[in-house]
Specification:
Rossmann fold, alpha/beta, six-stranded mixed sheet, aspartate-semialdehyde dehydrogenase activity, single chain, Dihydrodipicolinate Reductase, domain 2, six-stranded parallel sheet, 363 residues, globular
Amino acid sequence: MSDKLKVGVIGATGMVGQRYVTLLADHPWFEVVVVAASARSAGKTYAESVSGRWKMQEAIPDGVKDLVLLDATDIEAVTSQVDFVFSAVSMSKDEIRQIEEDYAKTETPVVSNNSAHRWTPDVPMIVPEINPDHSDVIKYQRQRLGTKRGFIAVKPNCSIQSYTPALAAWQQFEPTQVVATTYQAISGAGKTLEDAPEIVGNVIPYIPGEEAKSEDEPLKIFGHVDDSKQAIVSAESPVITSQCLRVPVLYGHTAAAFVNFKQNPTKEDLIAALESYSGEPQKLNLPTAPKQFIQYMTDDFRPQVRYDVNFEHGMGISIGRLRPDKIFDWKFVGLSHNTARGAAGGAILCAELLKAQGYIVQK
């Protein structure tokens, strides 16, 4: 009998759910034993349910194609078979908040790709290389939920991965102000280029809700667990302003960012900090952790989505074009894979960290 943790993916038929099942195929620690989606899909095999709308370049993994889909709202049926779940359900935010808490209250940890709980004060929003200690808040969340084992953890917005890791690497130089414009792939909307003819040969200058996430979520990541408040308190700086555009690219979010610092780092200081930056995933040698979290590219024509989005299997961050600015101190370009590091892959790495920390165990 396998000693792998048994995993359920709720919301398994959407693009992020599909990415989960492909990334989890042959995972050394986790095995997908349950897939769940809406009631209308329940009862079909996974292969039947995604027929004609499979969006991944990889084939449907053999281990899940014949699994019969459960109704994600039949919480007992899902949780009776798994040690924890990944959540990528497509519902209203209120519905997501409720269903994820209902799962957690069955003593089933939830690692979520959704935004609904990102601002719940006792829910950690984790980039494992940056704020692994935020899992400390889980003890307070469990007190609130009345659980001993169940909890919710979330990963942040996909687009901030293209510039927030650089800011984390540069914390010693005290960044104070940031302007970040992101150029975001269509898969961030759960679509392919074929699904979204409106994006072909076009740039759409508005993504609802995205700019607030881009400005505020890094501050929660840079914050700290306040034991007196039993919550995560956001950092006050750097102050971030953002614009977010949708561009005709399938995978990869690019950021053009400008930064002011309290200190006065040189270009050599900044590059060295990027290239040497690592965290708990690298120290613990977690299965999906990139060996090198951030690479700096000296070619002015890089990073490019075409060549660099799959750096470290999509789990690494590429930074380039670091140069002085006339108004800000420095400016740079960043690139991240939005459905690997930015979505399912980032959540899987978060689950690996939580397992290593002892928060996710077999039932």
